[in-house]
Structure formats: structure tokens, C-alpha cells
Amino acid sequence: MPFIDSPVRIPVSGASLGLALLTLAGCDGQQSALAPAGTGAQSIATLFWWMAGGALAIWLVVMGIALYATQARPEAHSLRGARWLIIGGGIVFPVIVLTGLLIYGLMLMPQLSLSEKVALRVEVSGEQWWWRVRYRTEAGEAVELANEIRLPVGERVAFSLTSPDVIHSFWIPSLGGKVDMIPGRTNQLILEPTQTGTFRGACAEYCGTAHALMNFAVVVMPREAFDQWLAEQAEPAQQPAGELQQAGQQAFLANGCGACHQVRGTEADGAVGPDLTHVGSRLTLAAGTLPADVEAFKRWIGHSSAIKPDVKMPAFGMLPEAQLTAMAHYLKGLE
What is the distance between the alpha carbons of residues 155 and 167, in angstroms, rounded to a whole number? Predict the structure, then answer.
């Protein structure tokens, strides 16, 4: 039976169209590098679109040459012309496009690392598996918190990044690029947020079992609101309000929690784990793993290792239910 050469038709279904729309929808959100809310992220997004355009141009030229080569009759062109077509479209054109993109990308790098006119400096330490964040007040006093960063809008911020254990990678996709946090070394990242709002940061380097549960919230706010927030963070912890929170504080201290955690203004002065002085005012708990509500505090205290594998904080599920509830209310009250 003779072979019949017929064109192959690929139907475009509603599912294919839906998948394409879903892919485009993934380019937005509080953790998207293609939804820039900072000068660094804007430069990176612009470079990405130029690279995508360059890749498309190279693909169209190469596919055009391939299509022409398969459809044209051999006698329609000379061998010399064919060679120039292949060399020009398959070598010269891609080299020119890629060289231009390389030069453009290299030109952006100094702009992303300039430390001039920095209005704020923040020290961040990536640890298994949470983030230690430290600000300095105008008086030079250190204000430490965990898993949450707040920034003034429209001002350049310098981050000093380090790690005491393994390599982590600090990344806020909507604000800028990523920088590794290497033990024994301090790296610097400059960010300048241009929009207010709440964004999501993450560790972009595999760092152990709970790597995927090592996130943090980033809140960009007007300068006046930021100054007020930082002043409040510098204050000692609030005294427990009511009998339930008082019982929670007693249980917190009696069970040795203060050996690892600090609550300024109390006997708890540990430095191993996160500072809990104002933990109740944070947006998330356990590095973005849980919401910061009473029930989440109770779950975290009683079942920490079940929620975050290999976490260094021991679980206190053996405590009476009344103590767990009281401690959860006490921690939530630290605002």
C-alpha cells in the first residue's frame, strides 16, 4: 500500500488553553519574580523578558532555516548561499543576540550591589530552619526577632547575610535577587522596595530535611509606620494579662523554655532559638509554617517535630493540656 504523506493536525483543546492560562497566572503573587515590587526585582524581570525575547528570536530564525531547508528544492539555491544561510542564521545571529544579552546583564550587576545612600541595615542569619533577624536602633541598640522582616518603602536597605550551620540562600523574589548565606562569611544584598504590601521570602538553597518549611514574611510600609513598629519592637515584653496568661508564663519558665528563647523583660534569656519578646505580633509561626494564632502555638509547642521534621526544638506533648493551652495564650499575648 503506498505511503500517503498527509499533514498532522494537533487539536487545541480547552485543557491546553486552560493550562496556558494557569501558567501565566503563576507569574503573579507575593512570591513572584515577575511581579516586581523593588528596583532589583524590576531589573531582573526586565532582563528576563529581554532574554525570553532573544531566545524566541533565535528559535524563530533557526526554525525558519530548518523549514526552508526541508521545503526548498535543491536546485532553488546554490551551495554557497546555503552555507551563508546556515552560518548567518545558525551561528552569527545567535552569537550577536547572546552577546548583547550578556553585556546588558553585566551592566545591571553594579546597579544591584551599590551600597551608596543606604537608609537601613539589617542583619539576617539563616539557621536550620528559621531566620534570625536583627535591627539596630538609632541609639545602636540591637532589636532581634525571627522569621519576619519589615522595611520602609522607597529606601535602600543593606542586608548582612550569614549562617552558623550550613549554606542557605536568602531570596525575596518580588524585591530582588538571591544571595547565598555561607558559614564563616558575611555577604551583602541591597534591596529597595517600591511598593507597600506583604511579600514572601524563602530559602533558595537546599539546607536539610525541613528546607521547604523555611520561609518568612516581608512587610513593606511607609517610613512613619516602620519607625513606630521598630520602636515597639525595642520595648520589653508585655506583662501577662489575666490568670491564663500568667499561668502560661509560669509554665514557660518552669519547663525550661527560657534556656533557648529570650523574652526581654523576663528571666528568659536564651540565645539558641528565636527571640519571642513580641512573637504574638508576627504574621506566621515556625518560619511561615503555621498562622500565628493560639491554636497554632499550642500545636507547635506540643508537636514541633511532627510539624517540622528534624527541628531542634523538642516537642512538649507530654505536658498537661491545661499547661499547653496556657502557654499558647501567653505567647500569643506577647505583642
Answer: 28
